[in-house]
Amino acid sequence: MCDEIKKDRDVAEFSLIGGQKRQLRVTLDPVRLKAYRLSAFQIAGALRQANFLLPSGSFSAANREYLLETGSFLKDGEEVGNVVVGLFSGRPVYLRDVATILDGPEEPASYVFMGLGPAAARKGIASASVGQKEAVTITVAKKKGANASLVAQEALAKVEALRGNSSPRTCG
Fold this sequence. Notes:
The protein has a two-stranded antiparallel sheet. Strands 2-7 form a two-stranded antiparallel ribbon. A two-stranded antiparallel ribbon has the order 3-4. Helices cover 27% and strands 37% of the residues. The chain is of the alpha+beta class. It starts with a helix and ends in a 10-residue tail after the last helix. The radius of gyration is 23 Å and the shape is flat.
């Protein structure tokens, strides 16, 4: 969601409070590590080597400059599990062989909740369920000269279009 809102040419700054970032968690199995004669340091080194992106130069063509990069970042749990972390009996040992890999939300660092009080029903505010719900606060700052109402309308339209598609917290 963040990337979609940040793309607006009239948005100067954007922040998100609450929600959960996506996180890949790797939990090493000490028994399997020992069986394959591997250490946590070897695993860390293999992951460092597999998860990099370096600038590799540039070239010009058609009155444009193109920047080249080498390598790539690991994108999901499957790619992380496919990293070769060692050899055993002449065969590759993959990270998935010695670890559990979870691809999901991070542990919450801050909590933001929204709820309806007891007077909500008397004031005609209906809710499917009573109690507090997790909330996400989005702040958008417009660029100088931009129409604040239009920037807000565009941001709200993007949030509404993305509702239910993904975790609200997809930016870092």
